[in-house]
Amino acid sequence: MDEEKKKISFIINPKSGTQSKEQVLHLLDEKLDKTKYAKEVVYTEYAGHAVEIAAQKAKEGVHAVVAIGGDGTINEIARSLVHTKTALGIIPCGSGNGLARHLQISMEPKKAIEIINEGIIDVIDYGKINDVPFFCTCGVGFDAFVSLKFAKAGRRGPLTYLEKTLLESLKYQPETYELETEDGTLKYKAFLIACGNASQYGNNAYIAPQATLTDGLLDVTILEPFTVLDVPALSFQLFNKTIDQNSRIKTFRCQTLRIHRTKPGVVHFDGDPMMMGENIDVKVIKEGLQVIIPRYAEKDSSNVLQRAQDYINGLKQINEAIVEDIAHKNKMILDKSKEQIKKLTKI
Ligand SMILES: Nc1ncnc2c1ncn2[C@@H]1O[C@H](COP(=O)(O)OP(=O)(O)OP(=O)(O)O)[C@@H](O)[C@H]1O
Asked: Which residues fall in a coiled-coil region (predicted)?
């Protein structure tokens, strides 16, 4: 009887996000359609483990491998599923969940399981940055730099990310990049260059708002140097899907992109950092990955109210981080003043 059922392997990254994975497992037992599917559950034991597990599962010819984790876990699984018959499924449990949000997969595990039960499959593009696959976004500059700091911080969650972003942006210097595409070469001084297969970094931060997963093209966003006065508009537009309308932003589409920079440094792919050289080749591979998607994905699911709410939540977190930072700085100034007064009174 079980032989007739489609096999699905669920891979859990216990380190992703902050959500309880036990609760997701409990829901799986309860809600997964057992008349259609036979499930097995595997926990990752180390970074990179999901690549090996998914490769083995694809070799066995399972129907789908479902990531219970975030974009890093999805990246590891999906890179082993490209150009196979095994589909990727997602129960979002990360911090940002960029690919799941782009695909309009619910953030509620119960609803994400319903999507798996419906079993609608689409074929999407993926990208490569110097032969490293990515599925959501990759890039160089400030966002890569933040992902490196974030990885080193060891704590995962949106607030950590915002704190890091704020504090690091104060001292980050823009670099000069030469960008070569099939249409020619251009030079930019830029704060960051992001290449979108999907439209967002995660947390509904739309860095490439017009990107689609099925057009065989990269959506490139260049953020040129800006001042502190540009920050409110840029952050509003990032969450409002309109960052491409900002005067500090340049965008274009291409199939292949060579980024030439003056020195080696960090890049990010799907939010994870990696060191690369001066020349970086980015390309898109059309229709390389089967993915389980919602039956009724709307063109743009988040309505104006939802987006306003996302923006307000983002601002609230930024505010908290600023207040915390100011309080910290004030304390440092106070401590320094006390020390100076002590020294002076000793003289
Ligand atoms: N058992 C494990 N121990 C330590 N690290 C792991 C383990 N399993 C996976 N990882 C690593 O954890 C990293 C983070 O996972 P993931 O990206 O899924 O979560 P996240 O960062 O919270 O979410 P998002 O990427 O959506 O923001 C991945 O890069 C992966 O390599």
From this structure: none
